[in-house]
Amino acid sequence: xxxxxxxxxxxxxxxxxxxxxxxxxxxxxxxxxxxxxxxxxxxxxxxxxxxxxxxxxxxxxxxxxxxxxxxxxxxxxxxxxxxxxxxxxxxxxxxxxxxxxxxxxxxxxxxxxxxxxxxxxxxxxxxxxxxxxxxxxxxxxxxxxxxxxxxxxxxxxxxxxxxxxxxxxxxxx
Length: 173
Fold this sequence. Notes:
By secondary structure, the chain is of the alpha+beta class. The protein has helices spanning about 25-30, 65-75, 85-95, 110-115, 140-155; strands spanning about 10-15, 20, 45, 60-65, 95-100, 105-110, 125-130, 135-140.
């Protein structure tokens, strides 16, 4: 199992699209980039996805080099020309940007990426850990979406549920 991101962090993005990556996230990005060495910029891949409403997401998904290599290996197993492969290649290859962390530990988000998640001018963004990836959200959208999604999930659980119990069914996989 690879390195994992942890936590939620709120950061300010400036008008040029520069936003500081949380220090703990930078460490995972560096350790998960096989070409990274001290003094060199670490690489990550930002997947912004399709503009189709069926798969449209309100966030950017950021993959380490190692995590994207796992995705690429799965895509490589799909038959060339298959619909599944076309979808996966469009989503994870065509609608993705390889970026580097600048010398100040920041991401510089291109305008098309800022437009995708509704960032304009000086906004607040949330970095949300998601295992071996992390998501970047506009703060107001994240708060609304998180409340709605987590309420729906937690409301479906019996009262007093121990969160560890949801892991039990995946033991031994």
